[in-house]
Amino acid sequence: MKRRVDRRLWWLLAGAAAVSLAWLGVTVGLIAVTLEPEARQRMLELLGDRWGFVLLMWLLGMAAIGWGLQRAFDVGVHPWRRLAEEAAVLLTADPPPTLRERGPADVRRVAHLFNELVRQRERWRREVDERVRAAARDIEQEKRRLAALMAELTQSVIVCNLDGRVLLYNNRARLQVRALSQAPQGLGGAELLGLGRSIYTVLDRAVLAHALDELRQRLRKGAAQPSTQFVTATRGGQLLRVQVAPVRLVEEEGRPRDTDPAAMAGFVLVLDNITREYEQAAQQQRLWANLTEAARRAVGNVRAAVEVLQLPDADAALRERLLAVIRDEVVALGDRLHEVAREGLADTTAHAPLEDMLGADVLAVLQRRLAEVPGVQIDVREPDPACWLRVESLGLAHALQRFVQRLAQDGGVERVALRLAPASGVGAAVRVTLELAWPTVHASAARCQGWVDSDAEGSAHGAVREVAQRHGGDAWVQDDPAQGQTCLRLLLPSAAPTASVEAQPAARVESRPEFYDFDLFRVSPAARAWDDVPLTELAYTVFDTETTGLNPSDGDEIIQIGATRIVNGRLLRHESFEQLVDPRRPIPRASIPIHGITPEMVRGQPDITQVLPAFHAFARDTVLVAHNAAFDMRFLQLKERLVGVSFDQPVLDTLLLSAVVHPEQPSHSLDEIAARFGIAVLGRHTALGDALVTAEVFLRLIPLLAQQGIVTLGQARQAAERTYYARLTY
Asked: Which residues are in the Exonuclease domain (predicted)?
């Protein structure tokens, strides 16, 4: 792209034109005043006849002046301005690049002196850095111990600030969240957990907000070790127990003491997937049921045989057969007991404590458990999103499953409806009614009430009424003639959210381990408008695409997407996204030497309808950054309607930002900018390689923008929009 002509040159040329015209007018006027009238008339007629020649000579003269001015600028102005722009990089780059000694002799001498000064500064800086490293060695050792401790923990631990931004996590948490999210196979980097990402992509916001409100209440009551926990269902059908503990504010010198005992800097989450425990308890329940049924049958047979043996007229053959029956039943029952012992039947008389669960999660758990009853269809009505219960979900699910089995086996019920409804009467404010409804024609209330009160065969958790009473409620069955149905109703305790407490300002924590960014404790971008947030406080997804060609509107397709993330001014290379895409069309031979992607490489890869949602999730809640972003964004936007996603976050372009900070540079290509900043270019023309180079360039541009007073996202976008390159379209 050619550099535009300096605007000042046009002003100088216009001034020269005005001066020359004025000089010509004054000269003609002075000559005319000294001539006789006849001579004056002849002179004017001569000028009238030769005006074209005069105009041509004037234009040639102006062109000569313009060329001379341009040459003067090229020699005396532009080299100095380019030198100033490149020298500004030396103030921010680490390590600083060497100024290119080019241009006139004076410019080369100044560049040489700059390089000498920079080398001297670097020597001093290395000495200071060495002293700092020596002084911080003990602190670094403590950081490593923390990282090692986190890596060795057998539990999944995540630390967040009050906005829900992830500040720290261990590898076990990353693996567990990946498993719970059920990301499509083969999609590189489709992670929900990462530094600076929102925990609400993993956990429901309402569930976590309720837990934090309860945590603040316990802090206000002066609990010595305040914590709370809840159980939630994930999108993949897993049960997750989450323990929540506060991160207390650290008092700092010069900072006013916070008088609110509930003030927190953030919170710690300990995740535990209890799905397997739930399934093991279900297995124990089935073993208990089988054992109970076998014991009941064996005892019945033995009892009948004993009653016959007690008859005086029983002959010897009959007695022998009955004794054989008793022996067989006792042996079979003993074998069954040994089998149950081998399979590890635990004590099922102890019941789990009540835990807070969102109403929708309770219904999801019950629906999955009741669906195990053959021949019965479960209809679930959507509950109030604000409905919370305090339940022991395992016992409740077992009792209701047993009840539905009786409905199906003895009542012929094939369809039941499950819903939550507000309770009425005394204590309604702290109660919720769980309703299970079926057509009255199959099983009436009078017939089913006995199953509710005492039908606990095969259940270690008791009958439905017993389970309800453990929850401090009750259970009953009643007919509803108006609806033609019968309902089992359980009165269960609600867990109403406590009064909301405003988020406290985040605390500044000095510790910054290499892989865990605690500085986010003091950042609250979610509470501010995008454009008002300083560039240094935003999270960015820096991305690049490789395509089959340069015309997205004419059918060219994406064949690779690569991205990395920047959080708090740090490039997180380990949090990256890289995925080949099957374009469903040929790759032109001419483009293969550029990006190195062959048709064989994309064959069998997921297409854009699978890759784009994964990339959209990776880039959620971040600002998009790309070089020549208009090109890449056009490819993404043309696929939004097809895929059903929208990239509506702000976008920054390093090409435009480079033109803002270095308007005198003749080129703003990625290679040229990288050379200007002394950035080593590796993996060029691969999507992830270009994204990493772009991220390095962007980090260098931020302090240069700040030198021009451009410190917020809105200011950067406005400055970029005013550049010449912003007019390019694709």
From this structure: 539-707
